[in-house]
Specification:
By secondary structure, this protein is mainly beta. The protein is built from one helix and five strands. The protein has one helix spanning 66-70; strands at 2-4, 10-12, 18-21, 43-46, 51-54. The model has no long low-confidence stretch (mean pLDDT 79).
Amino acid sequence: MKLSDDRDLEIDFTNAKDGFVFDQMNSAQPKYHGISQMHRVDLIVDFEDYVLFVEIKDPSHPSAQLKGLEK
C-alpha cells in the first residue's frame, strides 16, 4: 500500500492492511474527521499486529519555523 502526504512524498507500506491520510483538512475527502482542535499525525497505517502513526516533517520547507526545526 502506498500513501502520500499533500506534498511530493510517497511511502510504500509493504504488508499494510489499510492506511489513510489522517491530517485531512478537506471535508470533501474520504476519512475527513473534522476535529480541528486535535493534534493529528499525517498518516495512520494498520498492519496485522500493530498500528503505525506517521508524522512527516520537512526541515527544508520554505515555511519551516526555527522552533519546529529545533524540536
